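[User] I have long wanted to understand how a fold can be written as tokens. Those tokens are not coordinates but codes from a learned vocabulary of shapes. Could you go through the record with me and say what the backbone is doing? Thank you; the sequence and its tokens follow:
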Amino acid sequence: MASTRSNKGTKPKRAAAPEVEQNDAAPEAAAADPAAGPLAGRVALVTGASRGIGAAIAKALADEGAAVAVNYVRNKGLADDVASEIQRAGGTARVFQANVSDEGQVSTLVNEVIGAFGRVDILVNNAGITEDAWFQKMDFLSFNRVVDTNLGSVFAMMKAVIPNMQLHGWGRIVNVSSFVGQTGNLTQANYAAAKAGMLGLTKVVALEYATKGITINAVAPGFIETEMIKVIAPKIQDMLLARIPMGRWGQPEEIAKAVVFLVRDGSYITGACLNVNGGVVTAF
């Protein structure tokens, strides 16, 4: 589940899709050097990567050899920590600030990443917020902020990176949804609508690019032990744990492993949703 942030302000700007830059500064996947990792030569852009699930995904992709663009919206210090940890382990990472619910900032972000690394091969749409309220108390501003951040950003990011992926004939996109988009959850009408919409969007775009060397999938986490869970009152935590057949919280690293699988090994998987939820949702 996503961390809570406020995105109050002006309505997101409209902007043209970023210009496609044919820049081959970044190497192709390093088949000649398997010791460098199966994703060596690939460039990954992870949104909302300064903490929690996003940080775990960024580190896991770097462990596989990818150069990682660590996106953050406000907390540069946390993003720098993620990039520094990757660098200390021998990987390549840089931080990039952008509010991905703003189409203009998305265009700038993608152009900056391409300028720095030469390409974008892997996109993980992880950025998200929650603003929970009972339906009758939820206002349109709150509804739209959550939908713009959790769903609109996915639309904008995919629009921005896919042309560059097409230039190289290879791409992997993983959208981080939620079991809430499959089952619903009290007080989360905005969040559920956005996460369900993400699953539909994933299926459509996957079909449209199935012949282009680009796979597009989703992962749907269950209750994951992040800062959001840790601040919940113990009694409520016990109630939530009782809903999980496996009887424990998921870990950010378990979501990251699912993402790595889809990116590294999922060459014949597209338009799918991988549930990582401890049994909360068992649908096929």
Strands lie at 43-46, 67-72, 93-97, 122-125, 171-176, 214-221, 273-276. The mean pLDDT is 90.
